[in-house]
Write a structure and sequence with these properties.
By secondary structure, the protein is α+β, with helices and mostly antiparallel strands. It is built from three helices and nine strands. Strand 5 and strand 6 form a beta hairpin. The radius of gyration is 20 Å and the shape is globular. The protein starts with a helix and ends in a 17-residue tail after the last helix.
């Protein structure tokens, strides 16, 4: 009898093991049940999981792609300032990113296009900025041959390597 209970306990424990996280840069979609807003994102963590680099499509009135860096410590809300993104140790791409609090992000279409093209086949991506007076530099694995970044762009109707045109205003 005890051996049957022990066997049942072991099978229950094995079934409760959470699924392994997807590989880095795997595109995943989800829809918020309350708002109905859907998003698609692909991301990678630093080796110590202290930061995450995300390429995200939010499908709202006008679909928007953003690149975000989130750290466990978060970022203080502040004025927009320069973030440098270096791919495979190459020349950094400097651009102005938003710092709304908790994360830093860029959603400017020409910058998104430049960065996603550079990042798409990278082996390593380094993101460097400041948070207040502290320097922040994080190294992420690149997607290599993964299609995740292209899948995110496609989910928002963006064509890889092409700067999207601004949406036309709605007719009145």
């Amino acid at each position: 009898m005890i051996s049957i209970l022990f066997a049942l306990l072991q099978s229950t424990t094995a079934a409760a093991t959470p699924a392994a996280p997807p590989p880095p840069w795997t595109a995943m979609s989800r829809t918020d049940a309350a708002s109905g807003i859907s998003s698609t994102s692909a991301f990678a963590f630093t080796s110590d999981h202290s930061a995450r680099l995300v390429v995200r499509c939010d499908r709202v009135a006008e679909p928007v792609v953003s690149i975000q860096m989130r750290t466990k410590a978060g970022f203080a809300a502040g004025d927009d300032h320069i973030v440098s993104v270096s791919v495979d140790g190459g020349t950094p791409i400097d651009s102005t990113w938003e710092f709304p609090g908790t994360a830093t992000m860029n959603r400017e279409p020409s910058t998104i296009t430049q960065l996603t093209v550079a990042m798409n086949s990278a082996k390593s991506i380094t993101v460097t900025t400041t948070d207040g007076t502290a320097s922040v530099s994080q190294i992420f694995p690149g997607p290599g041959a993964s299609a995740g970044i292209k899948d995110v762009l496609s989910a928002c109707g963006y064509e890889f390597g092409v700067v999207p045109q601004p949406a036309k205003p709605a007719a009145k």
